[in-house]
């Protein structure tokens, strides 16, 4: 089977502590796993040529000391790297370097348009740093006209009806704004964009984890943080195409360790689409000329890879008994 890339989550280390984050929140079990650069090279070297490779983290991608090396490796093997980040480390010298490397798609997890709300959700964060990064990226469009910057927002009960306000705030500052449903449990969502309707099949993809494990989906990436997933393949112990076949076989077998978990899992909503191309999970609003097939596809792919860095911000409300910010 041809490898279907999901993304690479390189590190569990984060520079902030979001109030509900399953990985680095104030009540979470914080881990410090970070991928070996050779594991990243091994992963990207086995992908079909010309792939869009999303880089994210269960912490913050740029807390990985080898983050730039990972991007360079992807380009070296003929791929197009993109980034999901909390944006707080995007100072001009770093932005200049990632653009020189060849990154042209950057998604920034924000969830707020108010300094105080942002500070309450993302402890240790500064909303002005996000605005400054977006302004600098905007200024680089003369030199790099194909840069695309997207702002990601989790939909809470109190913000669901404010989507147009968010769109208006970011218009002229970035190229797109996305909204995704809140997940409040490892396998469950709320504040979906429309009635999810009948279940559809998930698309099994290869996600490389900070532990070196290969996960088939976002749900298992959340699940693996504090549970035994010794049955997941390890990079270097199995060729990537065989790992893809193995994971697909587990998905197809309802009595496998993966299949048993899938029975109660709602992450399939990422793959449901309406006529506009939106899923119950994700809606993306494009500004200007960016509303094209390639822009929409990159947005959807990065959402699937980076869901953890955004949506897990909201998971601990159920997992740890904390109230979600409203």
Brief digest:
The protein is α/β, with parallel strands linked by helices. It has helices at residues 37-45, 67-76, 92-101, 115-121, 127-139, 163-170, 218-223, 240-252, 257-262, 293-311, 316-319, and strands spanning 5-9, 17-18, 52-56, 80-85, 105-109, 122-123, 148-155, 176-185, 188-190, 206-208, 214-215, 282-286. Helices cover 32% and strands 17% of the residues.
What does this protein look like?
The protein is an alpha/beta fold. The chain has a single domain (5-319), classed as Aldolase class I (TIM Barrel), CATH 3.20.20.70. Helix content is 32%, strand content 17%. It contains eleven helices and twelve strands. The chain has helices at 37-45, 67-76, 92-101, 115-121, 127-139, 163-170, 218-223, 240-252, 257-262, 293-311, 316-319, and strands at 5-9, 17-18, 52-56, 80-85, 105-109, 122-123, 148-155, 176-185, 188-190, 206-208, 214-215, 282-286. Strand 7 (148-155), helix 6 (163-170) and strand 8 form a beta-alpha-beta unit. Helix 1 (37-45) runs parallel beside helix 2 (67-76). The chain is globular, with a radius of gyration of 18 Å. The termini are far apart. The relative contact order is 0.18. Residues 301-326 have low confidence and may be disordered.
């Amino acid at each position: 089977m041809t490898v279907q890339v999901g993304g690479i989550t390189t590190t569990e280390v984060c520079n902030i502590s979001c109030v509900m984050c399953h990985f680095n929140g104030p009540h979470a079990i914080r881990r410090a796993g970070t991928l070996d650069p050779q594991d990243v090279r091994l992963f990207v070297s086995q992908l079909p040529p010309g792939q869009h490779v999303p880089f994210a983290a269960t912490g913050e991608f740029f807390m990985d000391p080898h983050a730039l090396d990972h991007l360079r490796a992807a380009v070296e093997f003929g791929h197009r790297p993109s980034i999901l980040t909390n944006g707080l480390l995007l100072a001009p010298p770093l932005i200049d370097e990632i653009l020189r490397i060849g990154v042209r798609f950057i998604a920034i997890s924000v969830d707020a348009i108010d300094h105080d709300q942002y500070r309450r959700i993302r402890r240790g964060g500064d909303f002005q740093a996000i605005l400054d990064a977006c302004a600098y990226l905007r200024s680089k469009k003369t030199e790099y006209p194909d840069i695309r910057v997207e702002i990601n927002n989790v939909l809470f009960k109190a913000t669901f009806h404010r989507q147009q306000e968010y769109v208006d705030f970011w218009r002229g500052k970035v190229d797109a704004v996305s909204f995704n449903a809140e997940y409040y449990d490892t396998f469950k969502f709320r504040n979906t964009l429309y009635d999810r309707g009948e279940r559809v099949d998930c698309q099994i993809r290869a996600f490389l984890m900070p532990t070196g494990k290969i996960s088939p989906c976002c749900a298992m990436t959340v699940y693996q943080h504090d549970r035994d997933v010794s049955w997941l393949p390890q990079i270097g112990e199995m060729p990537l195409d065989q790992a893809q076949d193995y994971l697909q076989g587990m998905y197809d077998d309802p009595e496998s360790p993966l299949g048993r978990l899938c029975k109660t899992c709602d992450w399939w909503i990422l793959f449901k689409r309406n006529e506009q191309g939106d899923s119950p999970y994700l809606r993306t609003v494009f500004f200007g000329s960016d509303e094209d097939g390639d822009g929409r596809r990159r947005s959807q792919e990065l959402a699937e890879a980076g869901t953890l860095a955004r949506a897990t911000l909201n998971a601990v409300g159920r997992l740890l008994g904390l109230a979600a910010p409203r």
